[in-house]
Amino acid sequence: MQFDIFTLFPEVFKPYLETSILHRAVQNGLLRVELHNIRDWTSDRHHITDDAPYGGGGGMVMKPEPVFAAVEAVLGAPPACPVILLTPQGRLLTQQVVQELSLQPHLALLCGHYEGVDERIRQHLVSDEISIGDYVLTGGELPALVLVDALTRLVPGALGDPDGALDDSHASGLLEYPHYTRPAEFRGWRVPEVLLSGNHAAINRWRRNQALARTFQRRPDMLARFKLNQADRDFLETLSADPNHPSAGEEA
Ligand code: ADE
After folding, report:
1. CATH classification of 172-241 is 3.30.70.100, yes or no?
2. Please, are residues 151 and 140 in contact by the beta-carbon 8 Å criterion?
3. In terms of C-beta density within 10 A (0-12 exposed, 13-18 middle, 19 or more buried), how is residue 106 classed?
């Protein structure tokens, strides 16, 4: 998957792209990220990328000329791939949106800054707008990295385990079950016995029940959309009767 990222702060991206799974994906040729500094496409002596808003008011606005010049120089006019503006006004990023975007082999990400971007960028250059949550950051760089990270996980071969993304919280429609690793006992807290049993059917049922219980307790909105089977319904009935049931399905 290829990204062209247009930003005023390309240096922000490098440490993260040079770490862990993203770094490996770049090295294996599964991920390509080109960083473009919007400031390089200014034509004035001071390399100005922002200006005061028409109509007055606080804050500065990203000027259209360098943004159009940067995107068109790299991607042509019209741009050869979708151009996504990271903005708190965009559609909310969910795993479903990540899956939808993962069908695109090439995306351009435009990182807003200051109060926002000149509206003509929105209207005539950008094809999609994404927000990573209902809060406001100082710029679109972290949201762009969030998007690159979430999309890279779905590139075949990018995760060590080929099925790694299947059980993710949100991918399956349920929150993930709890994980444990060695030691079997730590400070007197034992790993649930069923996980040590070697009984894979029992382990799978326990995990499913834990995922159901977690989702029921923390995200009932997700559970309402999830397609339950009969065993799930039976288990949830015992939970509804006693949501604080300590096991939440600890037995198989
Ligand atoms: N820029 C500033 N805040 C943002 C957010 N929540 N999502 C995407 N881009 C942003």
Report:
1. no
2. no
3. middle
Radius of gyration of the chain (CA): 23
Q: Which residues contact 104 (CB under 8 A, 6 or more apart)?
A: 1, 81, 82
2-152: which CATH architecture? Answer: 3-Layer(aba) Sandwich (3.40)
Query: pLDDT for 220-242, tens place per residue?
Result: 999 999 999 999 999 999 998 87
- 166-204 residue pLDDT tens: 778 788 899 999 999 999 999 999 999 999 999 999 999
Atom nearest to 134 CA in ligand 1: 6
CA-130 nearest atom, ligand 1: 8
| Residue appearing with tokens 């990400």 | 109
Q: How far is the CA of 112 from the centre of ligand 1 (A)?
A: 8
pTM above 0.90, yes or no: yes
